[in-house]
Amino acid sequence: MDALRVSTIQPSHRLLDLELRTLWEFRELLGFLIWRDIKVRYRQTVVGILWFALQPILATIIFTLVFGRFARLPSQGIPYAVFAYAAVVPWHFFAQAVTRGVNSMIAERHLISKVFFPRLLLPVGVVVAGLVDFSVGFLVLGAMLAWYDIPLTASILLTPLFLLLAVATALAVVSWLAPLNVRYRDVSYTMPFLLQIWMFATPVAYSVELVPVRWRWLYGLNPMAGVVEGFRWAWLGTAPPTPSLLAASATGVVILLVIGVIIFHRMERTFADAI
Amino acid sequence: MLPLDLAIRVSGLSKQYTIGVRARRHDTVREQMTAAVKSFFRDGFRRAPSQTHLALDDVSFDVRRGQVVGIIGGNGAGKSTLLKILSRVTAPSTGHAQIRGRVGALLEVGSGFHPELTGRENVFLNGAMLGMTRAEVRRKFDEILDFSEIHQFIDTPVKRYSSGMYVRLAFAVAAHLEPDILIVDEALAVGDFAFQRKCLGQLQNQAGSGRTVLFVSHNIGAIRMLCQRCLLLRSGRLVLDGPVDDVIERYIQDVASRRRSSGTTLQPDVGDGFVLHPRDPVADLTLFCGDAMKFDFDVEAPRPLGDRTVGIGIKVTTPSGEPLVSMDSVVQRAGGIRGDAARWNVRCDLGRLPLNVGTYFVWVFVNVYVNNTVKQYAQFSNAFAVHVLEHDVFGWGTSLPRPRYWGPLYWAPQWRFTPQDRVDGVAADAAMKETLACRDYSAS
Q1: pTM for the whole thing?
Q2: Phi/psi zone of residue B335: left (φ > 0), alpha (ψ -120 to 50 degrees), beta?
Q3: How far apart are CA B208 and CA B212, in angstroms?
Q4: CA pair distance B207, B227, nearest whole angstrom
């Protein structure tokens, strides 16, 4: 019985000590948070999880009308609706993950002020739970591909890679903004606006071919551009994203994510006082 | 290193809050900027003195393994802050604490319940939140269910639960945690009375089974029942640490000495001229349930009162302001003030007025009676407040239920229980037989 672990509670911990052991101890809670999120999100709605399929479909219809029909934007030889939808789905996942992740602290403030657990589980749970909705979106994409008779290629196997990049990007943004949101609610008011700008800086509704070549490298800074291009390439067989740019933005995301998690972990200890 | 026989060692723990932030909190950057600009024009580059509040101030103590320690103190004494730090909900500002083993903290019953999930789902979720593994919860599920007594509703979303059911289930989960160290904050102040006793019993079992327990409560009865040792906190400092009875004794003195230090003069809100001078230390009484209550004040008359006896009336109202009981010295034929003395001392010993927990208000009246009709000279509304604290009046093991359930008064009537007919119709009691043996003479 003397094997009980002694833990120390002190004002601050070493900067790089992420207390991974505690995270591991609470792994079951992460599972429960994800499960709860999925279970609760569409309770008392009529169409339930179809909401996720519906939102990107509606966005795609609007894009198709405005950009496909009226503006007649080129779509690399793919029907514009499919072209847009293949990008809207990952984008929508990302935007939802960021919005809900940033607000997850506030949404669970009663928990934060009364129960101890690694706070990082909240945004991680929300982001992972979003993947379920995301897969529903992809079922619809599969149906669209069959309808338009677009053949699948082997590159589809690389989907998880781009998905991972999307998840990492979302978590990186959340780990920076969520602690800030605990102190300043301005962050959550700014989110929709920020995401909208980001969406137009990402080739969701248009093809990257429209961007002048000398500005393309800028897109490399935007990891979501890589994600969106990657998805289109994997599913529709369009031009692949430039590997070097993709690698650069992925590296950037990982660096941002690591710093973000360190910041988050440093600030989470006093979330209960500020929330 | 933490000696092997210790479960907790707290060394110089402090927690500082910046109250400037709390007093005028700026939730948006814009407000913050406006405030910054304003304070710049006011103070220039002088640094505004930072207003801080020490919620916990250099607290140190050790807890041996298996010890059950109560923590008491008034509001704002730092009890909850201490528990929040030990359960890692928030971090200390300075100092540190070492803890051996797994901590299960119950700072609030039912935090972590999700209204949309069913009772069963919430048990698992809440278990995970409190640090139980899924296997542990599954193993204990039946026990939890039995304890909560809500069998037929376990698969109903908890948003449809009554608040009583909610609390039962929440406490049932927490009561079946088996951490090495259990931290409980005021969790018993909820639910109906029978259930409170059950929870207390469960805590006692846990305490009995060698678990280290830290227990915060305003319920002195519960503290006395559960703990051998008690800590008394006052304004964030640890003032006394020792055997439970000594510490409770000091707490009672502490509360009593906080009575307002008198000297104030009260003007009537109806009527003219009369002035009330509460005498030390009676204004704003604080007492424990079951304690005797006395009022001692001077009444200053604006003019000679003459031959007519002037009565002093006292009305006690409930916390919500409804009259509970009134008394009047003249009506009671117990005398009053008269003649030309300018100042009278009035003492009124109410004895043990059976007030339940809560804050009561006392009105003072100066009345004359003409032909049994009252004429009011003066009325001092809410002249005193009486704070009645929880105490185990009947020696029952815990204090009385809240007035919400039990009413503002308690009473100890004479009871007599006499068995009557048994189920099979045969009289059981001697007294009963005697009655039956009565002969009816009217027939003869």
Answers
A1: 0.72
A2: left
A3: 9
A4: 9
Please judge whether A9 and B180 are an interchain contact, meaning their C-beta atoms are less than 8 angstroms apart: no
State the greatest distance between any 2 C-alpha atoms of chain A, in Å, as a whole number. 74
Query: In 10 A of CB A4, how many CB atoms?
Result: 16
DSSP string, B357-420: SEEEEEEEEEEEEETTEEEEEEEEEEEEEEEEEP--TTSSSS-PPPHHHH-SB-----------
Residue from B377, B386, B384, B387 nearest B264 by CA: B384
Tell me whether B54 touches chain A (CB under 8 Å): no
Residues B355, B386 contacting (CB under 8 angstroms): yes
Q: Nearest C-alpha of chain A: how many angstroms from B93?
A: 5
What would the pLDDT profile of B50-101 be if each residue is shown by its tens digit?
Answer: 677 889 999 999 999 889 899 988 777 899 899 999 999 999 999 999 999 8
With an 8 Å Cβ cutoff, are A39 and B121 in contact? yes
Pairing label, strands B103-106, B94-100: unpaired
Do A29 and B128 lie within an 8 Å CB cutoff? Answer: yes
Of A28, A40, A185, the CB nearest to B134: A28
- Residue A40: its chain B contacts at CB < 8 A? 114, 116-117
Please tell me if residue A213 touches chain B, with a CB cutoff of 8 Å.
Answer: no
A36–B94 CB contact, under 8 Å? no
Which of A12, A32, A43 lies at the smallest CB-CB distance from B116?
Answer: A43
- Position B23 scores a pLDDT of 41
- Which residues of A, range 22-51, sit inside 8 Å of B by Cβ? 25-26, 28-29, 31-32, 36, 39-40, 43-44
List, in order, residues 6 or more apart from B241 with CB less than 8 Å away.
B61, B229, B230, B231, B232, B247
- Which residue is listed with tokens 């003479």? B441
Chain B contact probe: residue of A5, A24, A113, A116 with most B CBs at under 10 A? A116
* Cα distances (angstroms) measured from residue B15 to each of A11, A49, B93, B218: 9, 45, 5, 22
Structure tokens at A35: 């499960």
Nearest CA in chain B to A5: B101
Residues of B whose CB is below 8 A from A7:
98-99
| Exposure on the CB side of residue B58, measured as CA atoms within 13 A | 1
pLDDT tens digit at each of 275 positions of chain A = 446 788 888 887 777 777 788 888 888 899 999 998 888 887 767 777 777 788 899 999 999 999 988 888 888 888 999 999 999 999 999 999 999 999 999 988 888 988 889 999 999 999 999 998 888 888 899 999 999 888 888 888 999 999 999 999 999 999 999 999 998 889 999 999 999 999 999 999 998 888 888 888 888 789 999 999 999 999 998 888 888 888 988 999 999 999 999 999 988 888 888 87
Of B322, B294, B310, B317, residue with least CA distance to B378: B310
C-alpha span between B367 and B310 (Å, rounded)? 6
Model pLDDT for residues B200-233, shown as the tens digit of each residue:
788 778 777 778 889 888 777 778 778 889 999 9
Phi, psi of B428 (to 5 degrees): -110, -35
Q: Pick the more confident residue, A124 or B433.
A: A124
In this predicted model, what pLDDT tens digit does every residue of B113-136 receive, in sequence order?
Answer: 888 889 999 999 988 888 788 898
**Closest partner CB to B88 (pick from A6, A9, A28):** A9
**Closest among A34, A252, A53, A42 to A126, alpha carbons compared:** A34
